[in-house]
Design brief:
CATH class: Mainly Beta
Structural class: mainly beta
Helix content: 10-25%
Number of strands: 10
Largest sheet: 10 strands, antiparallel
Order of helices and strands: HEHEEEEEEEEE
Number of domains: 1
Distance between the termini: 30 Å
Shape: elongated
CATH architecture: Beta Barrel
Radius of gyration: 17 Å
């Protein structure tokens, strides 16, 4: 993995999150997430399997900005199997719409995201045919979810990435997030 590109992207994203939440009465939330990624591409499913388990720690989507505000998001999708691997770090801006207007603890929402993704992959596509690159490409998506309370959220998101060397990294993700800290 090329940390010369990755470190500045992560640093800017983590600095931007607290600034974006300055107007949010809940503040920025940080915590773990766990999820499943279902690649759209038959090629990736054949190499890595139908579902890819993902987990990490970072800014959690359960923090509630004022509706209609744009906020930064960062996540990660990664897999490794039989010498093939990929790591995608989308850094996007999200626009959210909530479906209830009261102060209920359960808040359904929809969110659209667009931005860039750092992509690091080395995939054996066929015997003797290997594709690898460290690059930055387009990232976007549409997400629906429910904030179950101030700390716990579930979501489904269709992720769109620019193709790299003919490889389609698009896919559906299901995530469970839990906020451990606010600042």
């Amino acid at each position: 993995m090329n940390f010369k590109i990755l470190a500045p992207v992560c640093g800017l994203a983590f600095l931007a999150v607290p600034l974006a939440h300055a107007q949010d009465d809940q503040g920025a939330q940080i915590g773990p997430y766990v999820g499943l990624y279902l690649p759209q591409s038959r090629e990736l499913r054949n190499i890595f399997g139908d579902t890819i388990l993902n987990f990490g720690i970072g800014p959690i989507a359960s923090s509630r900005p004022a509706e209609g505000k744009i906020r930064p998001e960062i996540s990660a999708i990664a897999a490794s199997k039989n010498g093939s691997k990929f790591f995608i770090l989308p850094v996007t801006a999200a626009y959210e719409v909530r479906f209830n207007r009261g102060n209920e603890r359960t808040v359904p929402y929809a969110r659209a995201t667009a931005g860039a993704a750092y992509m690091d992959y080395a995939i054996t596509r066929a015997p003797g045919v290997r594709a690898s690159r460290k690059t930055v490409g387009f990232a976007g998506g549409l997400e629906v979810g429910v904030l179950l309370n101030r700390n716990l959220g579930v979501s489904a998101k269709y992720n769109v990435f620019s193709k790299q060397q003919g490889i389609d990294f698009n896919g559906l993700s299901f995530n469970l997030s839990f906020s451990l800290a606010r600042f």
